[in-house]
TrEMBL record:
<dbReference type="Pfam" id="PF03401">
    <property type="entry name" value="TctC"/>
</dbReference>
<dbReference type="InterPro" id="IPR042100">
    <property type="entry name" value="Bug_dom1"/>
</dbReference>
<feature type="signal peptide">
    <location>
        <begin position="1"/>
        <end position="23"/>
    </location>
</feature>
<protein>
    <recommendedName>
        <fullName>Tripartite tricarboxylate transporter substrate binding protein</fullName>
    </recommendedName>
</protein>
<dbReference type="InterPro" id="IPR005064">
    <property type="entry name" value="BUG"/>
</dbReference>
<keyword id="KW-0732">Signal</keyword>
<comment type="similarity">
    <text>Belongs to the UPF0065 (bug) family.</text>
</comment>
Length: 318
């Protein structure tokens, strides 16, 4: 059983034993759930699935609102400044929470101005190339990158897991490639058109193109293989031990939100995950769950890992 599934099992067991006592009046009006990225992406998809479950369970609408921009900073800051009453939450990901503060000076600190409520899922990044690529598998890709005169790779933005996964691999290979950042789906569209040579993308964002044969998957970026694409090797097992650059997603609340609200969302997300597991796995996301403390400790490790990598490619970074 991998770490994510072990956490989920423990969370479900804890949930079954937990006291049902919660604030009778929460939520007493619709809850706004912010997504700091465009509609249709992995964060948006996971947020809508979970918000639907919470709406049914808690008797109030959990309304998803997209506030994209600045690599997720605009939507994140909106929630940081929101009233800490549990009626404005955010489902956020690795970039805005663990990376962006190392890339640029922010007017808030995502590690202290937001409360981690519960981790929803981890999502491996998958290394994909267009069908025209000479790389047929991870072994031939690694050779191709080392011998090619010039390559481009796309990402969904500077500092995203998509970007840093590619940078990490190029750094370990000791080669250079040109980073071409995009907003949203355009990163995949230019890859499909052959204008980009390779990309690390979240599995949910490209699983349709992979199954249709429009993109060729070569490897996944996490330490463990993906349950969705189990035949794909990991980068780590392909000669680069310790390579781990997956994405993750979870609920956050503004600092000062009452513990009873945090506990309510944590409990209900944990309770909802088993019913959503099959759907999530089919789309490339692996449910996690767990306690707020577990999520906070995980975030701190992620922040430290990515901060070290950012300093490597940008010595002037914060």
């Amino acid at each position: 059983m991998n770490t994510a599934r072990a956490l989920l099992a423990a969370a479900v067991a804890a949930c079954a034993c937990a006291s049902p006592a919660v604030a009778a009046d929460y939520p007493d009006k619709p809850v706004k759930v912010i997504v700091a990225f465009t509609a249709g992406g992995t964060t948006d998809t996971l947020t809508r699935s979970m918000s639907n479950s919470l709406s049914k369970k808690l008797g109030q609408s959990f309304v998803v609102e997209n506030k994209p921009g600045a690599g997720g900073n605009i939507g994140t800051e909106f929630v940081v400044r929101a009233a800490p009453d549990g009626h404005t939450l955010i489902v956020n990901s690795v970039g805005p929470i663990a990376v962006n503060s190392s890339l640029t000076k922010l007017s808030f600190d995502p590690l202290t101005d937001l409360i981690p409520m519960v981790q929803i899922a981890t999502v491996p990044n998958v290394l994909v190339v267009p069908p025209s690529s000479p790389a047929k598998d991870i072994k031939s890709f690694l050779q191709y990158v080392k011998t090619a005169s010039h390559l481009n790779y796309s990402s969904t933005g500077v500092g995203t897991s998509s970007h840093l996964s590619s940078y990490m691999l190029m750094d370990q290979l000791g080669v250079e490639a040109t980073h071409v950042p995009y907003k949203g789906a355009d990163a995949v569209n230019d890859l499909l058109a052959g204008r980009i040579d390779f990309m690390f993308a979240t599995i949910p964002s490209v699983i349709g193109q992979i199954r249709a044969g429009k993109l060729r998957p070569l490897a996944v970026s996490t330490l463990q293989r993906s349950a969705t694409l189990p035949d794909l090797p990991t980068i780590a097992e392909s000669g680069y031990p310790g390579f781990d650059a997956g994405s993750w997603f979870g609920f956050f609340a503004p600092k000062g939100t009452p513990p009873v609200v945090v506990d309510t969302i944590n409990r209900e997300v944990n309770a909802a995950l088993p019913a959503l597991q099959a759907q999530m796995l089919s789309e490339g996301a692996e449910p996690v769950g767990g306690t707020p403390a577990q999520f906070a400790a995980f975030i701190r490790k992620e922040h430290d890992k990515w901060a070290a990598l950012v300093r490597k490619f940008d010595p002037q970074a914060n």
